[in-house]
Design goal:
Oligomer: heterotrimer
Number of strands of chain A: 0
CATH superfamily of the domain at 88-286 in chain B: MetI-like
Structural class of chain B: mainly alpha
CATH superfamily of chain A: MetI-like
Largest sheet of chain A: none
Strand content of chain A: under 5%
Largest sheet of chain B: none
Radius of gyration of chain A: 23 Å
CATH topology of chain A: MetI-like fold
Strand content of chain B: under 5%
Order of helices and strands of chain B: HHHHHHHHHHHHH
Order of helices and strands of chain A: HHHHHHHHHHHH
Number of helices of chain A: 12
Chains: A mainly alpha (about 300), B mainly alpha (about 325), C alpha/beta (about 425)
Distance between the termini of chain A: 25 Å
Shape of chain A: globular
Distance between the termini of chain B: 7 Å
Helix content of chain B: 55-70%
CATH topology of the domain at 88-286 in chain B: MetI-like fold
Shape of chain B: flat
Number of strands of chain B: 0
Structural class of chain A: mainly alpha
Chain lengths: ~300, ~325, ~425
């Protein structure tokens, strides 16, 4: 997500982000008001879906049909030629982006779980201050680290392209993953459980592995989705650290759509191809996806 | 936070612990610190260390690939505000301001309105919610492709995109140059961002609405409060923290805006914001100037974020 | 519970393995190895790609012992590529050779000590006599030559749609600015929506420079970039005013247009004229559009505003011998022919056989031989990248607000800041 947002404390368990609305005699509304509500909702629905319509329709048109006239019409002649062209242009980077986003999602989630556990349930003096310092890393404009970062990753010998980007996304993903897990453990793991484990003489690692990890699946789902999406959609790190030959799909799409005389049909097909994995995640795992978004909301 | 984050560590007030007790305490929290330490070290280096490095760079005269010749104090910053050709930097700040205001107001209004409409119970709520939220899953680079097409600045017979619709519906007065307008172009540039983030604001507020205890509403209803009074005096005051975090999230995203502008307009004068200016400056290998702009950007974000983080830390500790 | 610990360890191991596979998958063609020659360009499609392919075919014959690796970076008319290149040079990870505009743009790399002196090779390959003296002079910095030019392009060419012009009764191209303005007025009166098609940033810079050449003449124009001509003078103000007038004949949405979008307006008959470099000839031909004519920009006379794509040998290149073979092929008569017949430019060599080339290039070869060479800032032959960036920004502002005084003072300030460097 380009929204690398957020701050502490989801109140509801993350897996159930939107609790059922309260029932009761509150919705005393006239039929007129009810109708108005639906009309408004449908108007907004059309507006929100409009860009999607344009993407889909234009991507299925043949080159001749993309003029000023009839831009908004359905294609008279449906063709997948632009999809093929876009896929040819994007395929290598599409695969590379999986090689980027999957390790990022797994590694940052693992780090986040360990950190979140320590900061919520195995605390040390000054843990709050440390947490706040970690959290700050989430909000910084990455331009403020980009110039030396390029040099540092080179000097520690990371191969350019995907390996560098994996490292960078893992590092700058630590704050958000730590936040999500810290809040998750703080709300779902009772202190008593930890104490019981301690009384049994278990050390930290054993407590983490035997008490905490088995309860962590929902947290992992959220961080994995979050990190996968933000690595997939990232453009800033990608443009600084990689290029069309070794970089992720956003770079390839930008080259396809921004090249001299962009082919609008192919660009739009490319935009759809680029968005498919994250949209799929959103559709299939929507609940947890929203949970991830909610993980950031503060309700002190 | 409503949950307890009480720690299993011993109370801190114990008077002068014996060496043994101290060792025991140490043994209690040291493993945690060790587990955390890889992340801490990495962040210390890659967040704070590199920021320090950028600060040093911004105080140097490394204006080309030849490297750093010396320390020049704050002069790079002063030059940005006073001598930058055509006031380019202040222009980019002005653009950022317009963008931020329009984006935040737009996304908040839309999001709150949607949440309000959905909150009161409609059929197909899940469907509407899902559709309103889907733009969030798309990258700015991908949505930039379609928004560049929608915000075609041609008018009249040359009209394309949204202008075409206005033209064909005989709403010619609505046709406009979108982001190419020298004064208000940045307001148009905020439209795709509003499209993308309103759903997020909606989701935040929906969960805010749902977090309000039902008995509060019932009590108000029993007192004979009208719907308006219910929202005005009972519900909205409860949502202040939600609104605050929504604003923080939107605000810091706005400051960093880069992808969207690069893919809609490319780097150009009319739509230049500091994040894009950094990129343009790096193209000419002026590292010191790029660093100075980056640091100003960081300060702009920090001015908002740091008090918020501190406030948040306090609130947590109190509960 | 030990089992669970093991699971966690296994999971972590898998994550690492995935990371490693990410590394492995990417390592295939990084340009390392003694046989590979990674050639870094921004020629990724169209006539440019065709030219590169032609050159590569020649390279495969002449340098069979080496393997060509295409390091092309697409997008943004070269700006993406330049950024990638800057970062690779900064990281001391240069390609074996890279594309750079000949002239002032190269001095950035020379001063940074990032490219090698090729003077010795010039002698060995006989290039010092094969290229025109004027070109060799402008490639020479402190007595040394650092790059091999692949071609010469001309920037100050006016392209027209013949049918549209004929309908407005225009048969002879304008030769002076006043004449040009009256033609544009005629076109407008005849209902041509956009008499002069224009694109964004660097295309506007090109148009402005063409006006400057008309106003100042070739010598004074060249002097703008060496500090001999004053940017604050009154004739510059005149030129800006004329340029502003030209903008009024152009498409309002120019800031959203690439040069090919503007070209499309001409092809569709919505616009009559467009100023563009002579790569437009190859592009129009490739698109099958025949109904065009071309002439030098009105008032430019025999000024030949040139730009040259050249290749260099970076310091610490992995395969310097391979690079030299590439450069030798590039400079050879056969290499220049293979490249330029496809790219639409003319060979830098003076011994080229004009009849090998299409019609436009034959005329250009003749003009190059007798014309007065002037450099171009947006195409790197006149100014450094920093200067170019400052001018582009000022021009972008002018396109939106038309503030003559602000543009001039910005140009003066830019010259002051960058001319000495």
């Amino acid at each position: 997500m380009s929204a690398s947002t957020i701050t502490p404390a989801p109140e509801a368990p993350i897996s159930k982000p939107l609790a059922r609305r309260p029932r009761g005699g509150i919705n005393r509304r006239s039929p007129l008001g009810r109708a108005a509500t639906y009309v408004l909702l449908v108007i907004f629905l059309v507006i929100v879906l409009m860009p999607a319509y344009v993407l889909l329709v234009t991507s299925l048109k043949s080159g001749r049909e993309i003029g000023v006239n009839g831009q908004w019409n359905l294609p008279t002649e449906w063709t997948f030629a632009s999809w093929e062209k876009a896929w040819t242009a994007l395929r290598p980077s599409f695969i590379r982006t999986f090689e980027l986003a999957i390790p990022v999602a797994l590694i940052s989630s693992a780090l986040g779980a360990a950190n979140g556990f320590v900061l919520s349930r195995w605390r040390f003096p000054g843990a709050d201050v440390v947490f706040t310092l970690i959290l700050f890393g989430m909000f910084i404009p990455y331009q403020a680290v980009m110039i030396p970062l390029r040099q540092v990753v080179h000097e520690i010998g990371l191969p350019p392209g995907i390996p560098t980007l994996v490292f960078v996304h893992c590092v700058y993903g630590i704050p958000i993953c730590t936040l999500i897990f810290r809040n998750y453990y703080a709300t779902t793991v009772p202190v008593e459980l930890i104490e019981a484990s301690r009384v049994d003489g278990a050390g930290m690692l054993r407590t983490f592995a035997s008490v905490i990890l088995p309860l962590s699946a929902p947290g992992f789902v959220v961080t994995i989705i979050w990190q996968f999406t933000s690595a997939w959609n990232d453009y800033l790190f990608a443009i600084f650290m990689s290029n069309t030959r070794n970089g992720p799909i956003t770079i390839a799409l930008n080259a396809l759509a921004g090249a001299q005389s962009p082919d609008y049909a192919a660009s739009m097909a490319g935009a759809l191809i680029t968005s498919l994995p994250t949209l799929l995640v959103y559709i299939v795992l929507g609940r947890w996806f929203i949970g991830g978004l909610m993980a950031g909301s503060v309700k002190s | 936070m409503t949950t307890r984050t009480a720690t299993p560590t011993p109370p801190r007030t114990r008077p002068s612990p014996s060496p043994g007790a101290r060792r025991a305490r140490l043994r209690r929290w040291l493993p945690g610190l060790l587990l955390l330490s890889p992340s801490l070290i990495v962040l210390a280096v890659f967040v704070y260390g590199l920021i320090g490095w950028t600060v040093t760079l911004s105080l140097s005269d490394e204006h080309d690939a030849l490297g750093n010749k010396g320390f020049v104090g704050l002069s790079n910053f002063v030059v940005l505000f006073t001598e930058d050709i055509n006031g380019r930097f202040t222009h980019s700040l002005k653009n950022l301001l317009i963008f931020t205001v329009v984006f935040m107001v737009g996304a908040l209004l839309m999001g709150v309105l949607w949440a309000f409409l959905l909150e009161r119970g409609v059929r197909g709520e899940g469907f509407f919610r899902a559709v309103y939220l889907f733009p969030m899953a798309v990258s700015f680079v991908a949505s930039g492709v379609v928004w560049r097409w929608l915000m075609n600045s041609g008018t009249g017979d040359q009209a394309g995109g949204l202008n075409r619709i206005f033209h064909d519906l005989h709403l010619g007065f609505l046709e406009n140059p979108w982001w190419t307008d020298p004064d208000w172009g940045m307001a148009a540039m905020a439209l795709p961002a509003i499209w993308q983030l309103s759903g997020y604001v909606m989701a935040l507020f929906l969960s805010g609405f749902r977090g309000i205890p039902a008995d509060l509403r019932e009590a108000a209803a029993m007192d004979g409060a009208s719907t308006y009074q219910l929202y005005r005096h009972v519900i909205f005051p409860q949502l202040t923290p939600t609104a605050l975090s929504a604003m923080i999230i939107l605000g810091h995203m706005s400051m960093k805006m880069f992808d969207l502008i690069m893919s809609v307009s490319g780097a150009q004068w009319i739509t230049e914001v500091p994040a894009v200016y950094v990129w343009q400056t790096l193209l000419t290998s002026d590292y010191a100037k790029a660093a100075a702009i980056s640091i100003i950007l960081l300060l702009l974000v920090a001015v908002v974020i740091v008090p918020y983080l501190i406030y948040n830390n306090r609130v947590e500790r109190r509960s | 519970m030990r089992l669970r610990t093991r699971t966690a360890v296994a999971a972590a191991g898998m994550a690492l393995a995935l990371l490693a596979s990410g590394c492995g998958a990417d390592d295939g063609d990084g340009g390392a190895g003694s046989k590979k020659v990674e050639v870094f360009t921004w020629w990724a499609d169209g006539g440019e790609k065709a030219g590169l392919d032609g050159l590569v075919a020649q390279f495969k014959t002449d340098c069979a012992q080496y393997e060509f690796v295409n390091g092309a970076v697409a997008g943004g008319a070269g700006s993406n590529a330049k950024q990638v290149l800057a970062s690779r040079l900064q990281q001391n990870d240069p390609p074996d050779t890279f594309q750079a505009h000949a002239g002032a743009e190269l001095t950035d790399y020379i001063k940074a000590g990032q490219i090698e002196d090729l003077s010795g090779d010039y002698k060995e390959w006989g290039l010092d006599s094969a290229f025109p003296k004027g070109l060799v002079d402008s490639l020479t910095v402190d007595g040394k030559i650092y790059s091999v030019p692949a071609n010469i392009h001309r920037a100050n060419v006016l392209w027209g749609n013949k049918t549209v012009l004929a309908q407005a009764g225009i048969t002879v191209p304008a030769t002076t600015l006043p004449e040009f303005f009256s033609q544009l007025d005629t076109l407008k009166a005849k209902g041509v929506a956009t008499p002069l098609a224009l694109g964004k940033d660097w295309t506007q810079q090109m148009l402005f420079e063409a006006v400057l050449i008309s106003k100042l003449g070739p010598e004074k124009f060249s002097g703008l970039w060496t500090g001999q001509t004053d940017w604050a003078a009154a004739d510059i103000t005149d030129a800006i005013n004329d340029y502003k007038k030209l903008l009024s004949y152009s498409n309002k949405d120019r800031d959203t247009f690439d040069w090919t979008d503007a070209e499309k307006l001409v092809m569709e008959g919505k616009a009559a004229y467009q100023l563009m470099g002579d790569w437009e000839a190859a592009d129009l031909d490739a698109k099958g559009f025949k109904d065009y004519n071309y002439s030098v920009f009105p008032g430019n006379g025999d000024a030949y505003q040139w730009l040259a794509d050249s290749f260099v040998l970076p310091k610490n290149a992995k395969n310097p011998e391979g690079t030299k073979c590439w450069l030798k092929t590039l400079g050879s008569a056969a290499g220049q022919k293979a490249f330029n017949t496809k790219k639409g430019s003319i060979p830098a060599r003076t011994d080229a056989n004009a009849t090998d080339y299409p019609a436009y290039q034959q005329a250009a070869i003749a003009d190059w031989a007798k014309g007065k060479p002037v450099p171009s800032c947006p195409h790197g032959s006149a100014c450094s990248q920093g200067w170019q960036g400052a001018v582009a920004s000022a021009q972008g502002k002018f396109s939106s607000d038309g503030d003559v005084a602000a543009l001039q003072s910005a140009l003066v300030a830019a010259a002051k800041q960058y001319a000495s460097k």
